[in-house]
Amino acid sequence: MQEKAGIAGYIHHYVTIGELCDRLPEIDGWAEPEPPKFHFPPGRSLKGTEIAREALDKRHVIEICPFRAWVLSLHDTKEYDLANALNLGIMADLVYAAEAKNPTIDYFFRQKCQDLSCLPQLAEFPNYFHTLAVDVPFRERYQPPLYMNTGEGAQGEGDTRLFTVECASHVLVAWCGTDSLLNFRTDVSFGPKRCPAELGGMGNVHGGFLEAYQLAKRKFGDKFNLRALRTSLDNRKSLFICGHSLGGALALLYAAEMKAFNPVLSTYGMPRTFSRLAAYMQRDITHYRHANDNDMVTQIPPEVDLDSELYEKLGWLGDKLGFDG
Fold it and tell me: What's the CA gap between 199 and 248, in Å, rounded?
């Protein structure tokens, strides 16, 4: 539009709706005290668009930025999808943010995904990870994310972290991986435990991962049970789950419990979590496990089948190594 206007000798203006309005419109689902910054730039909104006096005898072309927002391009498919792999990988990285000190997750969804001047990206200097995103009507934007950390607060316990966020088309749940000594203890507490009924009820599961997962359920109560999330999924929203390392194992456990909602799961560098029989019970889950051949984490515990004689005899050692015996 700008190029065509220039060729025709017209003066081009690119403006947001805030630079055209004389009052704030009603924004569906918007509860913030201030309007969205990109569409209502501070200092320039509700004042109209200025035209210099000497340009009043010129023809002007005013291009209006659509009132839209970004959402990640995620596809509810059983086939391997590169867009899913990229975007969920970035989300598995984003969840590592020290949200209490620097609300990076909140900023990504409430600022970057509403800024149409560029695609949302995760900046980790010197790297910048660009997402694949599509623009949608503003009413279909991401709602504020919910970040949970079992270690926060006066009654903090452990270090299980995750965030959930949803838009009109999907729900996203990202689990944090090994990022502290407490997480390392969880990793090496590999003594097998029987799978509870909500995870299939058959076979064994890595004891440390199960305890970390159940801690989150116990600490967050209704927030973790996500009644509103289940309502969203009942309304045919797609469910995407991701995690790296320990976060991948927790993501798999969560996907197993949410199996009825047909989740799409992407994990990165995930250690072994279920025994052979327990994994078979999750065969209907769409799970793409990304692993580097040289990554030792993906081969821990060292025995594929936690139902084996080795773990019957030595499984207790995992608890001792994990300092929880």
Answer: 15
Q: Which of 143, 120, 122 is nearest to 36 (CA)?
A: 143
Whole-Å CA distances, 114 to 71, 138, 166, 275: 9, 8, 14, 43
Q: What CATH number does the domain located at 70-321 have?
A: 3.40.50.1820
Residue 272, Cα to own-chain centre: how many angstroms?
Answer: 22
Confidence (pLDDT) at 190: 55
Question: Could you tell me the pTM of the whole model?
Answer: 0.85
Rounded to 5°, angle at Cα 142 from 139 and 148: 145
Where do the structural domains in the chain lie, given as residue ranges? 1-65, 70-321
Residue 323 has a pLDDT of: 31
Confidence at residue 289, expressed as pLDDT on a 0 to 100 scale:
92
Burial readout 113-130 (b: 16 or more C-beta within 10 A, e: otherwise): bbebeeebebeeeeeeee
With a cut of 70, list the residues of the chain below it in pLDDT.
179-191, 222-230, 294-325
